Amino acid sequence: MAELIPFSTVLRERSSSAHAGSEHAGFMADLMRGEGTRDDYIALVVQHWFIYEALEAAADRMKADPVAATFISDKLTRLPALEADLAFLIGDDWRERIEPLPTTRRYVDRIRQVAATWAGGFVAHHYTRYLGDLSGGQFIGRIMARRFGFETNGIGFYLFADIADPQAFKEVYREQLDAAPWDAAEQARVIDEVLVAYRFNTDLFTDLAAAKSAAASA
Ligand code: HEM
């Protein structure tokens, strides 16, 4: 009998081209190449705030679900770090000065509809953001710190103070994905929702690039 491929491996493989789409989106690639400005970086932090507000509100609602609960950890919570970053980057009145972009509104609506009501959907959105933050995010944080001279203020989002070993944390997370009580049909639905989440992240970079060129020609 052929050996069963773990769900976490299938998920990573099935989403790798969607991941490449997000990773190589122009706005993100420019930031990573050092061609983005501090304002570009701030614009991204702002959109993250709306996304994590929805994601972490969904986590609060899903805590009672036994499957979702295995993935929920206070060690991952990003909203306080994002709020401290925004106060540092924009000022204490940051809340009055931020707006979600159109893709962010749609992404947040999707999280509210899907991730707050369906365990598999919640895990799909949770995985796409937090496993990314613990992977490429660690690298992105270091590049932004170097480029804009941040020490901890401004890049708190990328610093997981309570996760000393992101690699080990991700391994446990993958074991939990493999242990989730999902049949093949449910696994396929979860993968589809991860692809939806990647699409939002890629489209968000398109929106950020459009907002930037609109601001430049205003
Ligand atoms: C400059 C942008 C990015 C870079 C350089 C990057 C890089 C990476 C790398 C190197 C890994 C593999 C780490 C490992 O196997 O341990 C990874 C994994 C991952 N990234 Fe990204 N990434 C970027 C953007 C994104 C974005 C925008 C998202 C989605 C919001 C994302 C979501 C993920 C996820 C979910 C994983 C975990 C895959 C898995 O192991 O199942 N990444 N990233």
**How would you sum up the major sheet?**
none
The name of the CATH superfamily reads: Heme oxygenase-like
The amount of helix comes to over 70%
Distance between the termini: 64 Å
Helix and strand pattern? HHHHHHHHHHH
Based on the model shown, name its key terms.
globular; 218 residues; binds protoporphyrin IX containing FE; Heme Oxygenase, Chain A
Report on this structure:
The protein is an all-alpha fold and 218 residues long. It has one domain: Heme oxygenase-like (Heme Oxygenase, Chain A), CATH 1.20.910. The protein is 72% helix and 0% strand. The chain has helices at 7-14, 16-23, 26-33, 38-62, 66-71, 79-89, 102-115, 119-133, 136-148, 166-179, 184-217. Helix 2 runs parallel beside helix 11, helix 4 (38-62) runs parallel beside helix 7 (102-115) and helix 7 runs antiparallel to helix 11. 32% of the residues are buried. The mean pLDDT is 96. The site of protoporphyrin IX containing FE (HEM) has 19 residues, from helix 1, helix 2, helix 3, helix 8 and helix 9. Protoporphyrin IX containing FE is lined by residues 11-12, 19, 22-23, 28, 32, 127-129, 131-132, 135-136, 139-140, 170, 198, 201.
Question: Brief overview, please?
Answer:
The protein is mostly helical and 218 residues long. Helix content is 72%, strand content 0%.
